[in-house]
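This part of the workshop introduces the protein records we will be handling. An example says more than a description, so a record of this kind follows:
>
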Amino acid sequence: MGRDVIIACDFDSAEKTFAFLDRFTEEKPFVKIGMELFYAEGPSIVREIKKRGHKIFLDLKLHDIPNTVKKSMAVLSSLDVDMTNLHAAGTIDMMKAALEGLTRPDGTRPVLIAVTQLTSTSEERMQNELLINAGINETIIKYANNAKAAGLDGVVCSPLEAGMVKESCGKEFITVTPGVRFADGEVGDQVRVTTPAKAKEIGSDYIVVGRPVTQADDPVAAYRRCVKEFVG
């Protein structure tokens, strides 16, 4: 899979989403549909965006008992998304069950990736609030290896960790990295961030970019800047 920029369509309605996507007259960007938009509009928003020719990363971060996740993934696989995800913290059994549910009768399925640690989580919060005593990098590598052992295609991680994930899990193991900001932009509520150019250098396969594009004065220009810096 080639390197690509995914735009996080973090809107609360179909109307706002399509007003944004309509600005792209030449490109059909890869888009991420997260919880806010999916919960607001349901599966129909996925079908409509797909019909318009966009690739879709459905970012719902499933985390439940294996059987529930398996059945939920079976439902999501019928939406014809290109990529979806779950929390690696749900254990190897849950990830295996997810893969089973996601795989269609003909053997095809979307790309499945696991969230290691959210980019808003610092090592201090992880240790003090979640009582995970290992260091954050050690935890991320362990979760990534668990995902690989379960048969998943890759992980969501901060771009700062993409290189070490590749080193531990192999260069074919996909890294999808949010927490990307322009060098001259705002960081917001994420603590482990970097630029598109640096993410490329470190080894990200996909960067997920939200506010730097969606809230830009000229979203198309901001998207093209991302593509130029990250894809080249």
About this structure: The beta strands are 4-8, 30-34, 56-62, 83-87, 111-115, 154-156, 174-177, 206-209. The first strand starts at residue 4 and ends at 8. The chain has a mean pLDDT of 93.
